[in-house]
Amino acid sequence: MTPLNQIPIPELFVSPEAAEKLTEEGTKLPRWVLSEQQASDLELLMNGGFFPLRGFMTQADCDTVTRDGSLTSGAVWPLPVTLDVDEDFAGRIEPGDDIALSDGPDLLAIMSVTDHWQSDGVTHLGGKVKGLRPPAKAGDTPNQLRRMFRQTGWEDVTALYNGDGLADIQGPAMLILPVADQVEDRAAPFIRDNIYIARIRLFARAENEAMVALREIVGRNHGATRVHS
């Protein structure tokens, strides 16, 4: 039986043929240029790092997460992940509309907007996304790491979000470096002495228990069997 941390995780990317068609259609849609954090959120949505999310969260999911720490499905989730936009853009969008999401010149995804609401003076959009391509500065994906663990036979992997305690880890370890600009160094990830340095673009929203829980979910989605935050 294949270990759980080696089984492929669902992604939100469409087929290359569908991506080509949707890219052409996306040129006619309202386009939102993502901030760096939004681009990293979208990347983790598309590649499965934020599984089980299927897009930017709805108002109902956000309310349930804020109140109970879980999605309306019952799945544990610690923090809202929404697409926050300015009032001018929000004024042109209604539930049922599709919008194009880009990180500048590149169209990354199509989002089908289902929710449009405000809280604390911020306008949020929620809805499922269809991934077309990863951002130019994309990090390691869950399935890349899971495939690597399958090839190397790593069934028990400890993930650390900093180097503290790395020397005490017995067996394979994954050191996660979540700072976005570190992803630009494509030569950096490597395997040495059962340690893999993973580049995962996860922005810290706060330093609290909810962020610790989010790091654990992302680490486990990327193939870790235990996570030290």
TrEMBL record:
ATP-sulfurylase PUA-like domain segment(s): 8-120
Coiled-coil annotated residue ranges, if any: none
Entry superkingdom: Bacteria
InterPro entries on file: ATP-Sase_PUA-like_dom, PUA-like_sf
Protein name per the record: ATP-sulfurylase PUA-like domain-containing protein
Species of the source: Paracoccus onubensis
